[in-house]
């Protein structure tokens, strides 16, 4: 498969899939918050094809929200409200063209997603919300549902253009201990 956008690199996809593989024997489904056109979604869905786990996707399908002060960076001026907009129809088309099992797709801002819309148990989470609130909101939603041994990968942790992602993760880790935390490429990886 080829990458559907330039919002994630081949190296980052490799890291995400490697970490997903580490949760093969961990109970629970897989969630992705911020799927855009489905660049990582198609790889996740393909990998989960025979794993007995379901993929749950969440996106506003309205592009980026407004920035907060935590998201401000001279390197990230191009990221504005409404940027990176992809429709649910585009996502579904890309998933069908990749011939992967269709995930559960929920449309909405992450702050509007309810606990009923999230799997009861989660083995792996990929958070690609770009901004401070768009990382904290999913962490609040999924944290108590993460199975022992689960892994959470946060995109843009080491991206100077999107400092809110790192601020959210660092703040979260101060009050929610993790077994281990590493950074690889632009990804922050939390081992539960």
UniProtKB/TrEMBL annotation:
<dbReference type="InterPro" id="IPR029063">
    <property type="entry name" value="SAM-dependent_MTases_sf"/>
</dbReference>
<dbReference type="InterPro" id="IPR008884">
    <property type="entry name" value="TylF_MeTrfase"/>
</dbReference>
<protein>
    <recommendedName>
        <fullName>Methyltransferase</fullName>
    </recommendedName>
</protein>
<dbReference type="Pfam" id="PF05711">
    <property type="entry name" value="TylF"/>
</dbReference>
